[in-house]
Amino acid sequence: MSWPIRFVPGSKPGIKRKAPQEKNTVIDKKKYEENRVREFKEEWQRERDWLKYSVEKGMTCSICIEVGQTRSFPKSTFTSGSKNFRFSTVADHETSSVHLKSLEITKSRLAAENRETVAHKSVISMNNSVRNQIINKFRNIHALIKYNRPISDFIWLNKLDEAKGISHGNTYNNQKAATTFLENISACEKEKLEKMMDVVKFFSLTMDGSTDGSTTEQETIFIRFSVHGKITTRFLCIGEPESTSSLDLFKFVERMMNENGLNDHRHVQKFIGFGSDGASNMTGVKNGLVARLKEGHPELIGVHCIAHRLELAFRDVFKKDKMYTQLSTLLLGLFYFYKNSSKQRKSLRECIKVLDINGTLPHKINSTRWLPHMKRALENLFRTFPAFLSQLQNASHVNPKAEGLAKMLCNLQILAFASILEDIVKPLARLSLMFQRKDLTLADARDAISSTKDVLNLFELSKSQRTMQILETKQFLGYSLKGNGKMDMEKKASEIVGGIIKQMDLRYKDDNEELFSSTLIASFRNWPTVNESVD
């Protein structure tokens, strides 16, 4: 008997107890696993933010999935989903090379986003330098286009900046790059306009045409709208229509509206106004552009440019006036005489200096036909009169043109007429400048027209000291004038004033009088002040 003696419960004296038989653990474990239902345990996610669980996919690794989407990377069961719910499965993936590599890439990304690495700071510094160079190039091309300079100036402008110490780099210094920059600026402005149009309730278009350097017809369209009470006018597009017929212009407008997104369902009902000049292809009652646009937009109102109307009213008065024709011939003759000869210009400047007068070279009156040009030309005629006459008389010995201009300049009737016309043109020029303001409303325009007519009605020839002095003394600034002066200038002045007022009434008479009258409230100038009583 071996020691120590152990006590075994249930043993009896004299009876040897059988040794217990060993169980087959392998078979038992197999049966246990077959009957066991494994489930995902949330405790596995502690300190494992990357471990995700869903009923459909099972266990997945968010880090491995994110890295695998951006680059070619070995796949694992935790990328597509694993339903082998064992802790050992999680631990094996956690220590796998695929997971560790994904974890390293993710940490590098976070460090780069937080600008923690020296390499990243170097790259950002380099990028800022390149970015500043590109910004300078964008500014240069924008300035060239804004001030009507050719794109070819882009290259030497960059060289000028380099000479000033402003770095531009060695790339994108050519016309092709300048065109690319310009296209991107245009795209950004177009995107801004599209965002503004989303909050705009109504808009109108204004179109006018001119010819470019190659004598090709170009039509420019502007869009006008109100945002939060602020009137805004923006450039929309410029293009070349097939011709200036109303049908081709209509096709051009429709094409431009489609290209700029103004004909889609969001904005098509917002188009309520169209401004243009008074040409028949624009405002024709039956087949004009406005009439064609009204077929698709019945609510549209066509507006004939009020500044053009004023010009037309002025021109209508002097269509067959011989004195106005002679005066225009004199003013244009003076302009081209000095424009086409550097010798004559130099001689005129010397005369202005010797006579010590505040004179300038003559102004052109037929470039854009606006009344302010006529006003400046007339003012310059009287201000520089002594220098004009002295220089022309000196040049008349060898130049027949100078002799003819000098005779016209000394003509009593022409100079008296010019003096009368300057006094009449002054209020009209102020009205024209007001019509060209961007913040002008129809209510302001109507008040300005009424005030201008009142000023014209108050005009009296006897109150014009210069005109009366010319007629009575037949001299101006000591220079003798030639002519019989038989024309009744007082009657002439009265006819001019009456004709202008009559033509203004005809040109500003609208069929939409009731509609335009309702816009008076839009002008704060028409609102009563605190001290005024309202009936």
Q: Any overview of this molecule?
A:
This protein is an alpha/beta fold. The chain has four domains: 76 residues, no CATH class; 67 residues; 105 residues, Nucleotidyltransferase, domain 5 (2-Layer Sandwich); 216 residues, no CATH class. The protein is built from 22 helices and nine strands. A five-stranded mixed sheet has the order 5-4-3-6-7. It has a two-stranded antiparallel ribbon with strand order 1-2. Strands 8-9 form a two-stranded antiparallel ribbon. A hairpin with a 2-residue loop joins strand 8 and strand 9. Helix 14 packs across helix 16, helix 15 crosses helix 18 and helix 19 runs antiparallel to helix 21. The chain is elongated and about 175 Å long. The mean pLDDT is 84.
What value does the average pLDDT take?
84
**Percent in strands:** 5-15%
Q: What is the global morphology?
A: elongated
Query: How are strands sequenced across the largest beta sheet?
Result: 5-4-3-6-7
Instruction: Classify the helix fraction into a percent range.
Output: 40-55%
Whole-number count of domains: 4
Q: What is the straight-line distance between the termini?
A: 135 Å
* Total beta strands: 9
Q: What's the number of helices? A: 22
The biggest sheet amounts to: 5 strands, mixed
> Uncertain regions: pLDDT < 50 for 5+ in a row?
none
Structural class: alpha/beta
CA gyration radius, whole angstroms: 44 Å
